Amino acid sequence: MRQEERDARNPAYTHIEEPDEPTAGHPTQRVWDMLGWTKKHLFSSIPNTIATLVCLYLLWLIIPPFLDWAFLSAIWSSDTPDACKVDGAGACWAFVEQKHRFILFGLYPFDEQWRPMTAVVLFIAALAASCYPPFWSKWLIPLWAVVLTVCGVLMYGGVFGMTYVDNTQWGGVPLTLILSVTGIGLAFPLAVLLALGRRSNLPAIKTICVTFIELIRGVPLISVLFMASIMFPLFMPEGVTVDKLLRAIVGIMLFTSAYLAEAIRGGLQSLPRGQYEAADSLGLSYWQKTRLIVLPQALRIVIPPLVNQFISTFKDTSLVIIIGLFDLLTSAKTALADPEWRQFYAESYIFAAILYFSFAFFMSRYSQFLERRLNAGTRR
Amino acid sequence: MSNGIEPTQTTVEPSVDAPKTPAMGEEVVIRLDNVNKWFGHFHVLKDINLDVRRGERVVVCGPSGSGKSTVIRCINRLEEHQQGDIIVNGVTLTNDVKAIEAIRKDVGMVFQSFNLFPHLTVLENLILGPIWVNKTPRKEAVDTAMYYLERVKIPEQASKYPGQLSGGQQQRVAIARSLCMKPSIMLFDEPTSALDPEMIKEVLDVMVELAQEGMTMICVTHEMGFARSVADTVVFMADGQIVEKNSPKELFANPQEERTRQFLSQIIQH
Amino acid sequence: MADHSSARGAPAAKGSAPPRKTSFLNDQRVRGVLYQILTIGAVVAVGWYLVHNTLTNLAARDIATGFGFLDREAGFDISESVIEYSPADTYGRVLLAGLLNTLKVSIIGIVLATLIGTIIGIARLSNNWLVAKLSSVYVEAMRNVPLLLQLFFWYAIIGVALPHPREALEPVEGWFLSNRGFRFPYPVWETGWTLAVIGLVLAAVITWWLNKRAARIQGETGRRPNVLIPGIALFIGLPVILWALGGAPTAIDVPEMAGFNFRGGASVSPEFAALLLGLTLYTAAFIAEIVRGGILSVHYGQTEAAVALGLKRGLVMRLVLLPQALRVIIPPLTSQYLNLTKNSSLAIAIGYPDLVATANTSINQTGQAVEGVAIIMATYLTVSLSISAFMNWYNSYIALRGGRS
């Protein structure tokens, strides 16, 4: 095991393409040696030089026109689209200026939009705090309970003098966050049960879990959302209606749980058999063993894949547009329905893409950081 | 599987010479009666008969694959035997969960690969069983744990994680973890096989001390020095059978069976 | 499992008490069976409850259950189809047309995504700083933006940014780009072309056989006959000869403007183009990461060992690195192929008539929601299971050829 660890840190292993990199000596020289660096990394051989030139040419083709469009000739502010429609005008950021409230918060009553805004800020602050390993402790659970309650109160209103806002009016960024967080949060316990069930030695339980997991993983999310939105009403007894948001959450939850279950199963499998045996030999019962020994270790191993699954779910929530919910993508698309502004699709989609990207990119970097940290930590 | 016979083993002698006549009672605490076990079609245990009395120290040895680990793993039901009876402290091992629980509470086990819980500190490893299985109050469990950590001579490591300890220290923690459950029987499954030679002694010392206090022990080990100085009985197994069983003095000096002789000569030659 | 023991009592051994009797509920096996019965019972109960409610609701809404609607006339048109289809055809046929559209975009997408993904994956490991950086920018940008947003973007570019057919871009004579899609010249299909395709297949088979033969001869004599040159000759020669034998057809159908739209040539619809572009570029980013990971997973010592044996760079790649990397690459690659196929269902959002889109329209027209969703799920499940079965087979084939154990 120590050998593996050494291998993982060995630069020759992780960067196989640059085994001859000067390792010892003068770091300062490397920093200042621009010419040497350029030669080594860009012009070391004839094919290398050609590749560099091709890349530079491509960049020359793309970057200056893009910069011109996005910044130099862009129209940053205007009340009407006319300013953007003159010849030679670049990106019409005025569109975003005009529509950003709608894109961010959808159909939420305009004067009340400080509420979803506060909820999102609170939520992101809580998320940032939970991402910081020294803060990992038991009080994160009550913290989240409080944050989610406050977010819920802010969104619904109806108390403390805030007007009631039905969840059919929710939209934009808050809705996207609500769908991903509740989806994955509810999927998690189900996924743990499914993963344990799949490893059970009771054939009936194992079969049920395997069937569910493979069935869900074999079909597209859209079909699960369809099932939730079209068939859910049929499943309910007469007279009972389930609102659209809840249906979407249930669909996302079922879908995510199958993938999460597989990630967790990976963690369960990586636990050495000796851990189970040691727990057995102490006389722990199945549930004690699972709760005290197995899950704490298995879940720690699967944190990076869990974060990746969170990113997936976050991106997947954009599919709710198909069942008519008003998430960030829907509002970005609907903002374009205004015939005056219709041609500025690029600005609208780029704005939404930047929002999605910043969140997903941060989370994926975070997952990589966790992975390195876990590898560097205890022996596994 | 176990890695067979290592050349260094016979050279390690426990530092303390155990008294040869311990207070071994007449009461049979473990009885294996015609125990048979199969892995698929492979007959791992063939008609095993073995009585262990209270306070008896039994060493089980034999070539790798002879079924010696399987025997002791059957005693606390890590493996299920298919035929015959295993009776521990008057409780017959069946599928009855209560019986299994009762036996596991009373039988401690030490593994070749320590199997400490890496996500818990040493102290947490020690109090886990007492708190959750024996329902001991936490403070009492901590006191007991510290007592046994002193006994295995590493009280200062209580708040460290297993990954920060050496192999020998980990195995001593593992022994202490079993002792915290206040067992009346201890099973050792090749406790020194995964250790570097310089750490074997520190673990054997703890085991010898335990033996001197009259703990009932079954040890699967290749440490013949340990067997000679501590064991009341040495059991030699091969091919899933008990080939020979005798006091260490007799067995080493005067093996009755050809296979035992071969095995002993292989170990002692090196 | 044979059970020899459980019923036997303890022997009357001296010094041991008779076995403790506890409730039969404490028996491990009894408990196991009990847990299973309870679980199955719960699942069946929930299932029955849902089915019962569904049947009641359907009866209340006067919707007949069953797949009878598949034989009824669909009455709606779809914008493109691989097979002949008109609104007078049945629901069954429109769903089949949808499925074929799904398969079409998936198969082409898988091929293209694999090519692009492999190139970018290798580029990310390039010595060239610029190449490596550009590839990783591509990967990060694609992976972190929802596919559906990308699809909308591409579709909008084609629909809004490209000109009307009358002012279509014509980068090459006869090739037109407009907001109605992409039109290009296409040979008028005659026997000669069919024969040429057969020639290509034959060339592939013969080259494969030559390769086997070369390996055998190398085994016997130590010298490996050259396969590359005869292979290239076959791939060019055979189709050309067969094409000539088939009458050497040369007629090409060139698209031209007629009224407001084009006539003639072959076309790619904007929906298909956007979907294919989006799926390919998105999946390629994931495949690139898989390829990169696979190559990195081969220990550097392997290259050193192979070079120390005196193998040339190309051979090191072919004999040592590739077989090991492939074993790491193939399982996640399979799941990317499955993902691409499943993601093709996003077609519905931009109006490409795939299986989900046609099924959705059918559901809306007939109210047969349960059947419609069941058809979608069953079809995807079948496709998924077949792809993973094939990949499992291929994986074991690779493992046998190039693997330890």
From TrEMBL, chain A:
Transmembrane segments in this chain: where?
42-63, 114-132, 139-165, 177-196, 208-233, 245-264, 319-337, 343-363
* Cellular component per GO, a single term: ATP-binding cassette (ABC) transporter complex
Provide the alphabetized UniProt keywords: Cell membrane, Membrane, Transmembrane, Transmembrane helix, Transport
UniProt topology in membrane: Multi-pass membrane protein
Q: What is any one GO biological process for this UniProt entry? A: amino acid transport
Q: Which InterPro entries match?
A: AA_ABC_transptr_permease_3TM, ArtM/GltK/GlnP/TcyL/YhdX-like, MetI-like, MetI-like_sf
Q: Give the signal peptide range.
A: none
Annotated ABC transmembrane type-1 domain residues: 173-362
Localization: Cell inner membrane; Cell membrane
Q: Which GO terms describe its molecular function?
A: transmembrane transporter activity
Instruction: Name the segments for region: Disordered.
Output: 1-26
Family statement drawn from the similarity comment of this UniProt entry:
Belongs to the binding-protein-dependent transport system permease family. HisMQ subfamily.
Instruction: Extract the PANTHER family matched here.
Output: INNER MEMBRANE AMINO-ACID ABC TRANSPORTER PERMEASE PROTEIN YHDY, MEMBRANE COMPONENT OF AMINO ACID ABC TRANSPORTER
What is this protein identified as? Putative ABC transporter permease protein
Source organism per UniProt? Caenispirillum salinarum AK4
Automatic annotation (TrEMBL), chain B:
* Keywords associated with the record: ATP-binding, Nucleotide-binding, Transport
Q: Name any one Pfam family assigned in the record.
A: ABC_tran
**Residue ranges constituting the ABC transporter domain according to the UniProt record:** 30-264
Example GO molecular function term?
A: ABC-type amino acid transporter activity
Q: Where is the composition biased (Polar residues)?
A: 1-13
- Region Disordered, as annotated, extends over 1-20
Top-rank taxon: Bacteria
Q: Which family does it belong to?
A: Belongs to the ABC transporter superfamily.
The protein's name is ABC-type polar amino acid transport system, ATPase component
The organism named in the record is: Caenispirillum salinarum AK4
Where is the organism placed in the taxonomic lineage, from the top? Bacteria, Pseudomonadati, Pseudomonadota, Alphaproteobacteria, Rhodospirillales
UniProtKB/TrEMBL annotation, chain C:
Molecular functions per Gene Ontology:
transmembrane transporter activity
Q: Which UniProt keywords apply?
A: Amino-acid transport, Cell membrane, Membrane, Transmembrane, Transmembrane helix, Transport
- CDD domains the record matches: TM_PBP2 (cd06261)
Domain ABC transmembrane type-1 intervals: 99-391
Instruction: Say yes or no: keyword Protein transport present.
Output: no
The record's section on Gene3D superfamilies has: MetI-like (1.10.3720.10)
Span-the-membrane segments of this chain are 33-51, 105-125, 145-162, 192-210, 231-252, 272-295, 373-394
Q: Does the keyword Transmembrane helix apply?
A: yes
Principal place of residence: membrane
Subcellular locations according to the entry? Cell inner membrane; Cell membrane
**One Pfam family of this chain:** BPD_transp_1
Topology in membrane: Multi-pass membrane protein
In terms of superkingdom, the source organism counts as Bacteria
Q: Where is this region: Disordered?
A: 1-23
Q: What GO CC terms are in its UniProt record?
A: ATP-binding cassette (ABC) transporter complex
Query: What biological-process GO terms show up in the record?
Result: amino acid transport
Which PANTHER family does this UniProt record tie to the protein? AMINO-ACID ABC TRANSPORTER PERMEASE PROTEIN YHDX-RELATED (PTHR30614:SF37), MEMBRANE COMPONENT OF AMINO ACID ABC TRANSPORTER (PTHR30614)
Q: Which family does it belong to?
A: Belongs to the binding-protein-dependent transport system permease family. HisMQ subfamily.
- Please identify the protein, giving its name as recorded: Glutamate Aspartate transport system permease protein GltJ
Origin species, per record, is Caenispirillum salinarum AK4
